[in-house]
Amino acid sequence: MTEASDIITIGDFAKVKLRVARVLEAREHPNADKLLILKVDLGGERRQICAGLRGHYTPEQLVGRNLVVVANLAPRMMRGEESNGMLLAASDGEHRRVVFLTPEADIEPGAAVS
Fold this sequence. Notes:
Layout (H helix, E strand, L loop, with lengths): L9 H5 L3 E11 L7 E6 L4 E6 L7 H4 L3 E5 L5 E3 L2 E3 L2 E2 L1 E4 L4 E4 L11 E2 L1
């Protein structure tokens, strides 16, 4: 259920820049049991994103995939590695699965999601 304090305006939502990113490289984070470090292409711009995917996906399963990311999230350090973005995924508590939000068809990295 959505509480009144959780409601945002269309202007708030418009500030979030969602983009398609292609995973170029993926590896396990050396200092975190749940994190993978992804190198992604955002359409001419390469970034590093740390994501809590270990145990759900292997690095090899991610390389070459297109994912949807929040491209304008402020960078932050995660166990000594900079994360510059956030990928979007859904999870169900019952089965503890993690499923990426991905484009339905192949599209160039950097494509805007709206």
